[in-house]
Amino acid sequence: MNHTELQHAYEQAYKSGKQAWNQKLLKGESGYLRALDSMIQPGDIAAEFPLGLVEIPINKIVGTYTHARSISFADNYMPIMNIKTEFASKWMYLYDYHIQTGIADPIKVYEYLNRFFVIEGNKRVSVLKFVEGTTINGQVIRLIPKRDPNNKLNTIYYEFMNFYKETHINTIWFSEIGRFTELLSYVKQYRTMTTEDEADKIFLANCYRPFRQLYLEQGGDQLDITTGDAFLTFLKIYGLSKEIIPEAYKVKVKNIIDELKVIEAETTHVQTEVIQPPKKKSVFSSLSDLVTSKKVLKIAFVYAKPVSTSGWAYAHELGRLHIDNVFKDQIVTTKIEGVPENDKAFDAFKTLANDHYDIVFATSPTYLAPALKAAMEFPNVKFFNCAATHSYKSLTLYYGRIHEPRYLLGMIAGSMTETNVIGYVAPYPISEVVSSINAFTLGAQAVNPRVKVKALWTNRWDNPEGGKAVAETLFNAGADIISNEDLPIPGDISKGYGVYSINQNTHQKTHYAMAIWNWGVFYEQVIQNILNGTWKSIQEDNNRSDMPVNFWQGMNNGIVDLLYSNRNMTAPMKHLIENVKQAIIRNEFDVFKGPIYDQNHVIKAKAGENLDYEDIIHMDWLVEGVEGEIPDIKTLTPVDPFSYMQGITGK
Length: 651
Hints:
Strand content: 15-25%
Radius of gyration: 30 Å
Strand order of the largest sheet: 7-18-12-11-10-8-9
Helix content: 40-55%
Largest sheet: 7 strands, parallel
C-alpha cells in the first residue's frame, strides 16, 4: 500500500479513537484503554496458570497490562497518538503487513475473569480491531482470583473455569450463576449428535456462532444481557440442533429477541383482582375474526396426566366442565391427557394449532418452554400457561396465590401438633412450591413459635405413591402432623392429602383441612372477555398495550381457597382461621410481612416490609424454622416409594 493509503487508514482509526475518548470523558470516565495493573490489588490473585497457545476472540481483548502502555489507545483500542509520532509509523507498518500478509505472530496476554489484557502485541490487537478481525492466537496466562462465594462475578468465573476445562470454549459468557453448568449439559448432548472429532469446536461453529450472527444482525446487542444468555434461552425453548442455518432460524431468533426485550423491560402488569370487562371495548387482535364473526371458540386443555389419576389435572378439568356449562354452544372444548412434561409437549401444541384451536390452556408449569415456543410459532392461537415466572410477549401466564391458603393450613397444623414437629411433603422444587413451604411455616409459627417443619421432596408433580412414602418417612422422624398432596382425585377416600394427623399407635389419619383450586372462576372470566371482545382492553386500561399481563389471583376472587373439617376443627380454631382469611381477602393482612429470616438467619423482609410479586415468584430460599433444603432441579430423580421407605430420613 502507498503512504497516502496508510495515512488515510491511520486517520480513520485515530478519528474512531478520539470519538471513543470524548464519549468517555463526557461520562466523567477515563478515555484511556483499561490497564490491568490498576484493576487488581496485591492479594487479589490466588494463582497464575499458563494456558499455552489459545485462539483468543478479538472482542474479548479489552485492555493492556500496564497503565504506561494504555495511554496510546482509547478505550476501544483505537490509537490516539498524533500521526507524526513513531507510534503512528509502527501502527501503519503493521496495518500494511496485515493487509499484505496477515498478522500471524501470537501475542502475549493475561486472562482475568474471561477478559484478556495484552502484555505484548497491543498494536497488533489495535490493527485487528480496526479491520474487524475475529480472533488472534496468544500465549495466555490465567490470573485466578481468590474464591469469594459472596461475589456473583467471582462465582460465575469459577463456573466458567470448570466449563473451559471441559470444552476449551472461551467465547461465551453469562450474567447469572448456574448457566455455564446448563450450557455444559447441551455441549455434552451435542457430542452424542456427531461422530466427528472436536465436537465442541463444531458446536461453537455450527450452533453458537450462527446464532450470534443472527442475534446481532437483528439488534440483540441493544439488550442488556450477554449473547450467551440469549443463546441459552434459545436452546431451552427450541432445543439443540446439529446446525443453526441462518435462513431457517432467522424468524426464531427474532422471536427470542422480542421476548427478551419484554423480560428485560420488567414492565409486567400483574393482575391480582377479579378480571372485569373494561368499560371500553377493543377486540383482541389475534382473535378478532372469532369475535366479529361470532365463530364458536375451539378451546383445548392440555394435561400431563389422566384426570382419573391426577388431582391437579382433575382440578383443571372441573374448570373446563364449568365453562362448558356456562357458555354452552358458544364454545367447544377438549382435553388432551398424558402429554409429556418436557420439550416433546410442543408436538401436542403444534397439533392443536394445526387443528385450528383458538385457545390452548397448558396446565402445568413444566410446559413453559414448549408452550412459549408454540406461542411464538403460532401467533394466531392464544396460548396460556399455568405458571408464575417471567412475563412474555407471546404467552400469557396465570397462577394462584396458593401461599395464602397454605399459611392458613400452617396455622391449623401448628395448633394441632403435639410433638411440635410437622412434616411437609413437597412435590417439585420450583418457586411456587418454595413459597408455599415458607408460608405454611410462617402460619404454623404464628400460633406455635416452638414448631419445626421438616420438608422432604417427591421430586415430581402428582406423585401419590411417592408422597405416601415421604409422609411415612416424616412420621417416623417424629412428625405427628403431615401436609401432603392437597388435590384429591375422583373417588379417592384415602385422605392422604391436605393437613392431617397420624395416630402414633393405630396410624389412623384425622383430616383437618386442604387448599383447593377453583380454576373455573378464572377460565370463565377469560373466555367471557374474549367473547365480548374486551380482552385486549385489559392491557390498554393500564396505558400500555404492549405490556404483558400475568394473572396471579388469590383468595380475594376465589381461585384458591381453604376447605376444612367442621367435625375435627375446634370452634376457636375455625373462628381464628375465618378471621385471618377475611383479612387476607380484604388485603388487610399479608402472609409475607416482615420480619422474615431465612434458614441462615439472614433477613429477607424487614419489620413492616412486605415481599412483593417478584420476591415471591422467584423465591429460592427457605424460612427459619424449616428443616430441609431445596434440591437441585437439574439432578432430580423422582422418589421410588419402595427404596425411599428403606432408610431415607429427614434432615
